[in-house]
Known about the structure:
Bound molecules: nicotinamide-adenine-dinucleotide, 2'deoxy-thymidine-5'-diphospho-alpha-D-glucose
CATH topology of the domain at 2-185 and 221-245: Rossmann fold
Low-confidence stretches: none
Oligomer: single chain
Amino acid sequence: MTTVLVTGGAGFIGSHFVRCALHKHPGWRIVNLDKLTYAGNRSNLKDIEGDPATSSRHRFVHGDIADENLVDSLFAEEKFDYALNFAAETHVDRSIGDPGAFILTDVYGTYVLLEAAKKHNLSRFVQISTDEVYGSIEEGSFTEESALNPRNPYSASKAGADRLAYSYFATYGLDVIVTRASNNYGPFQYPEKLIPLFVTNALEDKPLPLYGDGMNVRDWLHVEDHCAALDFVLLNGGAGEVYNIGGGNERTNAEITRLILETLGKPDSLIRHVEDRKGHDRRYSVSTEKLLTLGWSPTHQFEQGIVETIRWYESNRAWWEPIKSGEYKEYYRKMYDERIRTSKGQAQ
Ligand code: NAD
Ligand code: DAU
């Protein structure tokens, strides 16, 4: 049996990875270490935990990656073969208001995991970084060799973790791989991020707060493609290497917004052009040549995947309604109420 540590496995991407990996690798046992912050949700794993074929190979541990004693004893007890670090504070807007939590989890937490990995001779450590570490690019695409230029506290903390992980390879010879993926979409994404926020607001006939002119560009990657790429680089990648993972689906936020409204049959009058995000990166774009050459490419078609995703939120109100009716209400009030009140109204 191969024992794999997944951190942040109750979050959006981590829970998909746990599901995909347990189904794909019957010889794997996954230990899922998650702090269950506002973004962690055990119900993301309900199917895994309710199915004897997977539940017997999944151990959930409620804890913090920045807790040295817990992490060290877990490594000693479980003798992990591999670790994939998904755990992070992940929302750019929250990082603008409260950077401290991002430094503690994304940087210090990664350090704690790397120390344990070094001490316990882990075979491979995958650090889930992000394309945001490169910063914004007006034209062309960043390669793995491009300089890093993170421009908000979230991406800066991720860049710190990204290079810290690499330093454990360069300095101590720990087998580390760093991945930098583009924006993920799919089921179970916390409704603070663009797509689930706008889909669920539209379903509730609430305004869609589009930042600035709505012309910022993101490259959308289906979450299952991201997880397949992580599985692929874990098993086929080179030690010390960085891999970009992109979907090849660049869209403006205004295009995504209209697609959501059209799919749900809701009016454009729900769109509000609100005050822009501070330091808002204009465009993200990564070259995925390196991963293509190694032998992996995405399989989900965006036009189909996005409609399926929108329909998933439409059919799974029982997943997001409790989230949006809890402490989330206070977050939403602080983040959006004033912006929407002073907004310029519908997009032109
Ligand atoms: P998410 O916010 O949905 O989930 C994060 C998970 O980490 C939650 O379950 C949370 O409880 C857990 N967590 C937070 N702090 C923790 C701590 N101190 N100890 C243990 N667990 C903790 O995030 P996501 O969107 O699934 O992102 C997962 C990873 O992928 C992150 O590292 C993120 O930077 C990276 N990433 C995300 C995207 C994207 O589009 N969402 C793209 C590229 C990279
Ligand atoms: O690129 C990868 C990154 O993608 C990940 O590393 C991050 O964890 C993830 O949160 C995501 O960051 P973004 O800032 O790109 O995602 P977000 O969904 O917050 O915003 C996407 C775009 O939509 C961005 O240009 C801001 C805009 N936006 C977002 C929200 C929440 C709006 O216009 N209105 C909104 O209310």
